[in-house]
Amino acid sequence: MFDLLIIHAHLPDGRRDVSVGVKDGLIQEISAQDALRHAGAGEVLDAAGQLLSPPFVDPHFHMDSTLSYGQPRVNQSGTLLEGIALWGELKPQLRQEDVIDRAMSYCDWAMANGLLAIRTHVDVSDPRLLAVEALLEVKARVRPYLDLQLVAFPQDGVLRAPGALDNLKRALGMGVDVVGGIPHFERTMADGATSVRLLCELAADLGLPVDMHCDESDDPLSRHVETLADQTHRLGLHGRVTGSHLTSMHSMDNYYVSKLLALMAEAQLHVVANPLINITLQGRQDSYPKRRGMTRVPELLQAGINVAFGQDCVLDPWYSLGSGDMLEVAHMGLHVAQMTSQAGMRQCFEAVTTNAASVLGLEQYGLAPGCRADFVLLQAATPAEAIRLRATRLAVFKAGRRIASTPARTASLNVNGRPATVDWRL
Ligand code: FE2
Predict the structure, then answer these.
(1) Cβ–Cβ < 8 Å for 139, 150
(2) Is 16:54 a contact under the CB 8 Å cutoff?
(3) Is 424 part of a structural domain of the chain?
(4) Number of structural domains the chain divides into
(5) DSSP code for 156
(6) What residues have their beta carbon closer than 5 A to ion ligand 1?
(7) Residue 424 to residue 409: CA distance in whole angstroms
(8) N or C: which end of the chain has fewer CB within 10 A?
(9) For residue 49, what is the domain's CATH number?
(10) Which of 274, 286, 218, 224 is nearest to 248 (CA)?
């Protein structure tokens, strides 16, 4: 007897018309068609050929600044530099309860969107560590339905900003999960490389993963990812280190990249691209042609490197848009990387689900017996259709329990006396 039985579901890996039986919060069995019906179930949900996916995962976000749009003023130019200046103005005014309220609102949006795991960077440049305390509180509050992972992020440079290394260590001591960094923002290339070594050694000592904002620049000579791969290999951190953004790779010399990809694969680095933010913030010094500035996603995947897409920003000093919709992120990533092949579109869906889960190191994630019964039912039949429509999340489940529902998207027409219904699916 199952607690929940979902029938006639399509799965992202191409399996069609399957049944998924859930017991005690875990997926117990997946079988063809109605084969599990005989076992009985407390609740039966007919998916009617819609896509049942593991939940969306955001591997790169900034929850300490989200939903602060307009505070203390709006970013008029929409540029990175005005965004950084704005965040500098807002930081001294932050109040812990405001950070918590905004983050909790965003977690509600995430849950409704089937986004049930988020890795968020938290700025540790402020010695008060007010945002760290706030997000640790949020992490505890949302734990029953959302996995929140925190990265100690020295926004102003771990060597460049006075006291930043000490603040970062204190944040880790308070329970922050991941060591962050921003080598391209240090004063010199040499300082950037030193910061990578120092932070990787700290992570090795503490047994923690690493996730750095790395080479978020159009400068083809910004090569800190090379040092990140080297230190990962030297310290035996294989599979525990993520390079986020890596936008300089877009502009690098092709020969150099052919060497770099092998180093990154050897170190088993994870890569996170942030398509919405990369396409808006990079290439701003260019006239025409303007570079897109997103890292080389298909080439990284081809080299066997795990690549995920992140949201990065929503309604904050850097980005005046966004809604916590990882299908919007996948949609932009697909376009910017020209991943319009059949395999490429599937990979873009994986970039916001399974690949992102690998970045976070989530356990029991996926659609297989023994995995947590966390999933989202989409108003689409395939991953490509889900991306095309930014499909409605009909139902979101956590540990086998429905935690969010959205009505199917339809429209009613009445023209020339001919009533009709539109649902945008083939
Ligand atoms: Fe970021």
Answers:
(1) yes
(2) no
(3) no
(4) 2
(5) T
(6) 312
(7) 9
(8) C
(9) 2.30.40.10
(10) 218
Please indicate, yes or no, whether residues 117 and 61 belong to a single structural domain of this protein.
Answer: yes
**How many DSSP H helices and E strands does the chain contain?**
13, 18
| Ligand 1 centroid – CA 213 distance (Å) | 6
394 in a structural domain? yes
How far apart CA 195 and CA 184 sit, in angstroms, is 10
Distance CA 105, CA 312 (A): 16
If asked whether residues 294 and 388 sit together in one domain, one would say: no
Joined tokens for residue 140: 């505890």
Q: Among 130, 61, 144, which Cα is nearest to 98's?
A: 130
pLDDT of residue 418: 84
Helices (DSSP H) in 212-360: which residue ranges? Answer: 224-234, 254-266, 275-281, 297-302, 326-336, 342-350, 354-360
Sites in the chain below the pLDDT cut of 70: none
Phi, psi (rounded to 5 degrees) for 273: -95, 150
The span from the CA of 78 to the CA of 276, in Å, is 13
Question: Which residues have CB under 8 Å from 205's CB, separation 6+?
Answer: none
Distance from Cα 89 to the centre of ligand 1, integer Å: 18
Same domain, 391 and 308: no
Residues 48 and 145 occupy one common structural domain: no
Length reported for the chain: 426
Residue position matching structure tokens 């690098």: 252
Is residue 419 situated within a structural domain? no
Rounded distance between C-alpha atoms, residue 22 and residue 7, angstroms: 11
Distance CA 21, CA 12 (A): 17
Same domain, 48 and 68: no
274 CA to centre of ligand 1 in angstroms: 8
Ligand 1 midpoint to CA 275 (Å) = 11
The Cα–Cα gap between 424 and 292 comes to 30
> What residues contact 319, with CB distance under 8 A and at least 6 apart?
83, 276, 277, 280, 312, 313
Per the CB < 8 A criterion, the answer to whether 133 and 152 are in contact is no
Do 68 and 100 reside in the same domain of the chain? yes
Range of the domain at 37: 2-54+366-411
Identity of the amino acid at 83: G
> Are residues 277 and 356 located together in one domain of the fold?
yes
Q: How many CB atoms lie within 10 A of CB 204?
A: 18
User: Is there a domain that residue 417 lies in?
Assistant: no
Run of H or E including 23: strand 18-23
Q: Distance, CA 62 to ligand 1 centroid (Å)?
A: 6
Predicted pLDDT of residue 80: 81
* Active site residues per annotation: 216
Q: Are 24 and 113 part of one and the same domain?
A: no
Alpha-carbon distance of 98 to 120, in angstroms, equals 17
Distance of alpha carbon 396 from the chain centroid = 18
